[in-house]
Amino acid sequence: AILGALLSDRYYNHATGLVEYEALDNLDPRWLDIAVAQNDLNLVKILARPGHAGAAKLLESSFVETMKKSKEWEDSHLILESMVRIKHPAATKSLMDLLTKHAKGTHSYTLFYIGRLIPALPKESVPDLEALLPTLPEKAIDQLLGYVTELKNKL
Known about the structure:
By secondary structure, this protein is mainly alpha-helical. Helices cover 59% and strands 5% of the residues. The protein has nine helices and two strands.
């Protein structure tokens, strides 16, 4: 019920490429503390905010563990999206790891969901992303180059 109420005001922000939650703007930050204390990843993914060390740690460790076991990009995508949204310092590396593991044989929608996160990364990520592109399949390069260019041209 709590998740349903929190998710009721979510929307896709075309400017940032991220799902945002208006209902969370005025939410008491102690709810995030409780979600972290209970290791409730689903709630932390939604409630996470920049600068919350506990949420950042849980997201990163969950991403790493999921990537070890995962056979599908969807298993870790929403964790990565939360990391990007809160400007987690490992977001760029995590995105690159996800692309490296899952870019081969993926459908275009996969690259869309991962690629749309790129413009929300820090601009300092551009050299690493540009170095990654030539190592990916050609169809992935074609789809991701525009997102990297958008990040590169960000003010």
